[in-house]
Amino acid sequence: MSVQFRAALEKTKQHYIEHLLKAGVFKKEDRQLYHLTLTELRLLLLNNKQRTEQKLT
Rounded to an integer, what distance in angstroms lies between the CA atom of residue 51 and that of residue 13? Predict the structure, then answer.
């Protein structure tokens, strides 16, 4: 994997983690956020966003 690609992945993971932390999400099933894959973080963020939007309606 190229260095640039790896850096982009890590930057995206960090972005997702920051958003989840701001939303009050610190773990998923006893796993720290930084142990999750990019896909797991993305799905967790989308699910959290949907739950938040449902609360508002």
Answer: 21
